[in-house]
Amino acid sequence: MAIDDTSEPVLAPTESEIMAARLATIVANSDDAIISKTLDGNVTSWNAGAERIFGYTAAEMVGQHITKIIPAELYDEETRIISKLKAGERLEHFETVRVGKDGRRIDLSITVSPMRDSIGRIIGASKVARDITERKRAEETQRLLLDELNHRIKNTLATVQAIATQTLRRSASPSDFVESFNGRIKALARAHGLLTGSSFQGAEITDLVREQLLLGGEQDTRISWSGPAITLEAQPALHLALVLHELGTNARKHGSLSAPNGRVAVRWQVQSSNGRSLQLNWREAGGPPVSAPTTQGFGSVLIEQSLRAHSGEVTITYAEGGLTCQINLPLPALAQPLGTLAREVSKFDAPQAQRQGLEGKRILVVEDEPLIGMVLTDYLEDAGCEIVGPAPSLDKAMLLASEAQFDGALVDGNLAGRPVDDIARALKQRGVPFAFVTGYGREALPPGFDDAPIVEKPFTQEQVIAALEQLFSNVVALRKGKRGA
């Protein structure tokens, strides 16, 4: 029996059909956004990658103008792209920003190619966009970390410099300087060691007491302490460590720990009346007779100013039975104004640095590190300036910057992690010249103040004075220019 076969023969796909199918599969499954549009900017195709990146479905975007995902400030960018496409150019890997359906800005790396018809005419464009938001975020995080590392290193070096300068000014001899300076640097190093373990998030007060009083890990039964577990933030912890070092050093040299039967008891608690605060009591007993010193040494100044930088208070009593020290440290810190320091000048003091044009100038000092503020105060007073501040907090600095009377200012790059943009704006609005004193680079400082000089930490007296002279010489030149006009 004959078989009647009238079905159409199955034809093998052509090479061009295979290539088209492969291309369609690649486009459909790509993680990148692959979009086509007309030369007028209307979207003609929108793949699954585009849906994932921008949040719009193909139905929501095909037929819409591409500016739907372009920020208004970048419309000119699209105009330039179209112009280059019409000239037959391919735009490779430029980075830009687009806007998703939820309003978030998306960092993209984009390649744009012209689309041609069968006779070679340019009829549109094909865009491949890769989401680089995470990469950009990682780059920004790395930049911020490097800026912060740079700032902390320079701030630490400036603190060491301040300790050296202040110790020298109050040392009776070179050997006295070496001993005092080495002790303070070791105390600083021990405190940094504790903070490093917590990524500079803070330190537990018991660890601070142990590190600063039980030197070298020794078990000295003459020293006792008790109190609740309290973690202090990095900067207050660092300053309290230096305070404990000064008290411990004084006790070993002149106080109770200089006698075999002497004792030191450290007790602390948290009080919640009028805000939380740390109440720490240092009490010495069993040592030689105690009398109040006739002059104020650097150790006493360091204790007082380190605590005052965090609105803390200290009361030292030289009782017959032994020295006692009462410390009140707010938690968290609420900074108060730092007073002008009483200075002793030893025979090893630095030479006076009076410079023409600075005598009598009132200078606002904005600095959250008390030791560095002390050095700036000394440098400026040596040059014949009067000090306003130092201001260790943003609130205090803003109050002084807005209301106090002064001729110029030296401003830290940030205050306890808070930016100083508002301070810079307040100074500029009042027409007061200022310089940044900071461990940060220009890119990490408030934008729009590129004319403000930078004194990099650690600094010398000459650098500070030169920056002020530059500020005031610029002011004089500006005034002369206005009169000439």
Count of structural domains:
3
The gyration radius over C-alpha positions equals 34 Å
How far apart, in Å, are the first and last alpha carbons?
115 Å
Poorly predicted ranges: 333-356, 476-485
Count up the helices: 13
Envelope shape: elongated
Can you count the beta strands? 19
Quick recap of the structure?
The protein has helices at residues 15-29, 48-54, 58-61, 75-86, 133-169, 174-197, 205-213, 234-253, 298-308, 370-382, 394-403, 421-430, 461-484, and strands at residues 33-38, 43-46, 91-99, 105-116, 122-131, 203-204, 223-226, 231-232, 263-271, 277-285, 313-319, 322-330, 362-366, 386-391, 408-412, 414-415, 418-419, 434-438, 454-456.
Describe, in plain words, how this protein is organized in 3D.
It is a single chain. The chain has 485 residues and is α/β, with parallel strands linked by helices. The protein folds into three domains: 22-131, 2-Layer Sandwich (Beta-Lactamase); 171-330, Heat Shock Protein 90 (2-Layer Sandwich), CATH 3.30.565.10; 362-484, Response regulator (Rossmann fold, 3-Layer(aba) Sandwich), CATH 3.40.50.2300. Helices cover 40% and strands 23% of the residues. The chain is elongated, with a radius of gyration of 34 Å. The N and C termini lie far apart (115 Å).
